[in-house]
Amino acid sequence: MSDLLVLSGKKVSSVVYQGLSDRIQTLKEKNIIPGLAVILVGENPASKVYVLSKTRTFKKLDLFTKTYRLSSDISQDELLHLITELNNNPSYHGILVQLPLPKHIESDKVINVIDPKKDVDGFHPENAGLLAIGRPRFIPCTPKGIMKILGHYEIGLNGKHVVVVGRSNIVGRPISILTSMKMDGANATTTLCHSRTPDIENHTRSADVVIVALGVTGFLDHSMIKEGAIVIDVGINRIDADNDKGYELVGDVDWSSIEKKASAATPVPGGVGPMTIAMLVENTVEAAEKL
Amino acid sequence: MSDLLVLSGKKVSSVVYQGLSDRIQTLKEKNIIPGLAVILVGENPASKVYVLSKTRTFKKLDLFTKTYRLSSDISQDELLHLITELNNNPSYHGILVQLPLPKHIESDKVINVIDPKKDVDGFHPENAGLLAIGRPRFIPCTPKGIMKILGHYEIGLNGKHVVVVGRSNIVGRPISILTSMKMDGANATTTLCHSRTPDIENHTRSADVVIVALGVTGFLDHSMIKEGAIVIDVGINRIDADNDKGYELVGDVDWSSIEKKASAATPVPGGVGPMTIAMLVENTVEAAEKL
After folding, report:
1. Nearest by CB to A190, which of B158, B187, B192?
2. Right CATH number for B140-273 from 1.20.120.680, 3.60.15.10, 3.40.50.880, 3.40.50.720?
3. Which among A94, A253, B165, B257 has the fewest CB atoms less than 10 Å away?
4. Ranges of residues in chain A whose predicted pLDDT is under 70
5. Which residue, among B123, B137, B189, would best test binding to A if mutated, counting the most A CBs under 10 Å from its CB?
6. pLDDT (tens digit per residue) in B93-105
């Protein structure tokens, strides 16, 4: 087996940012600064980290962003009311509600109230539907980022068998739709596996491309893939570690196990993660352009 | 191999109508008569037959229906204007635009303008999206009918491998989503094959359930399924025949080839077809109930 090709989301994301800088410049010349409103409810430590790295990127690019930090006991009505205000605020082209929300708030209702044209996460039913019927507006950031990585490394999916593990609305479901769409770079035959699949390894073993989005540390090992498979690791799992942070991030793929068998794979960190943020910026720029 | 179980959509649809009659009665006691507006543009002979059999069913059940027959040279604006009127007309709980539309009209724009709460075909992006994220409102009639047939014959999909052939927005895509949803009766591992799949037979041969929605007469034969497979034939193809009509309807499955190998299958006619109309009635009744 030849050496594993490391699919670096970090590298691809910097190419994306380069491409975006012209578009951002053009907007600025029209006095439009792409703006993102971020809503963070409560004190979930992972959510705080995610929000921070998103807003930091926006600031680094001289884009406008503001984080609305709300107490975990905010009422659903207050939250809906804030979103309605942000919908009507022309400084924001994108609105992002960091999930998960506290249990007393229905996430569905919250997402429903976001203006679909500002829904840069692509979670609103209208945007999920436009994707499902093959006319995407905002594609959820992680699946979109995966397609960008594959595109950058010229890995076309036409005629390939893709097996997706995990059926979340955020990653598994939309990437299964995207990969199998009638579209350049897509056109794969896609199988969607999940917690109720009795023999996941039988499916992954026949796949040309395996996309794992399960949130289970080290789930995929060499026995579950075929020689030369392409592996996309969407997992971002925190495990305790003896470092400053007290934790480190690992994926759903056992890298040391697959690295001699796979032909290409995304690492964690530095794989899909950086692309998610880059796609959030891209979607926000797109939203501003469409204004 | 034991005898093939014929999955009779005709029989299941009559059970559905029985179940609906109580619901229709309850609505009538509240002076609500479920109403469907059907828009038929042009003179496509197949479309005329479909519209006729839909409206005939509504009339037989003493429901309200009216068909708007429009000339094929109607402008898109006129059509959109009519739909807006029907959206605001309280006599109609459902609005159906028979597809295909003439080439000068953009189907997407037409479907977009239907009030999603009257979109009993389930084609509006919002309804497609609600299905994709696992909170369906109106499920497209043919996929919904397929699930009903399987449910009636107590064929649970949990743990089964379903292979769908065809990725249309009307059947293939939504049934691939439905079968793999986190839901009683669903929870299948689903593979979506299509025109760009190089080795469809390798996929169908490993399937517990094969759903063919390709529109190619006799596409699926015994060499493409495993012993005991369940076969759902969504094809409705017209072939010339020496009878009064001058044609007969045949499916995508070569019935004589698979009948000794499959364990169960839907016939054409009398399989998925009657269920599609039954689900249109069910969706319209649901729309009236939700009013």
Report:
1. B192
2. 3.40.50.720
3. B257
4. 1-2
5. B189
6. 999 999 999 999 9
Nearest beta carbon to residue B191 from set A124, A181, A189? A189
Residues of B annotated catalytic, as ranges: 54, 98, 121
Whether the link from the prior residue into A198 is cis, omega within 30° of 0, is: no
CB contact under 8 A, A182 and B194: yes
In total, chain B counts a number of residues equal to 291
Question: What residues of B are in the A interface, CB distance below 8 Å?
Answer: 108, 123-135, 158-159, 161, 167, 169, 173-174, 176-177, 180-182, 187, 189-194, 196-198, 203
Q: Distance between CA atoms of A186 and A189, rounded to whole angstroms?
A: 9
Task: Retrieve residue A29's tokens.
Answer: 């010349």
Best interface-test mutation with A: which of B123, B176, B192 has the largest number of A CBs within 10 A? Answer: B192
Q: For the residues of A145-184, what is the DSSP string, one character each?
A: HHHHHHHHTT---TT-EEEEE---TTTHHHHHHHHTSSST
Are the beta carbons of A248 and A238 closer than 8 angstroms? yes
Q: Which residues from B are below 8 Å from A197, CB to CB?
A: 159, 189
CA distance B19 to chain A (A): 30
Q: Measured between beta carbons, which residues in chain A are less than 8 angstroms from residue B173? A: 132-134, 177
Rg of the Cα trace of chain A?
A: 19
Closest chain B residue to the Cα of A191, Cα to Cα: B191
CB contact under 8 A, B158 and A203: no
Summarised one tens digit per residue, pLDDT across range A22-58 is 999 999 999 999 999 999 999 999 899 999 999 999 9
Neighbours of A118 (CB within 10 A): 24
In the numeric block, the tokens 């409810």 are attached to A41
Tokens of A167: 């059926």
B185 by Cβ neighbours in 10 Å (0-12 / 13-18 / 19+) ranks as middle
The domain locations on chain B are: 31-115, 140-273
- Tell me the fold of B31-115: Rossmann fold (3.40.50)
A266: helix, strand or coil: coil
Q: Is the dihedral of CA A101, A105, A109, A115 positive or negative?
A: negative
User: Which phi and psi angles does B78 have, rounded to 5°?
Assistant: -60, -40
DSSP class per residue in B107-140 = HHHHHHHS-GGG-TT--SHHHHHHHHTT--SSPP
- The C-alpha atoms of residue B255 and residue B291 are separated, in whole angstroms, by 43
- 0.90 exceeded by the pTM? yes
Topology alike, domains B31-115 and B140-273: yes
Q: What do you get for the CA distance between the two ends of chain A, in Å?
A: 50
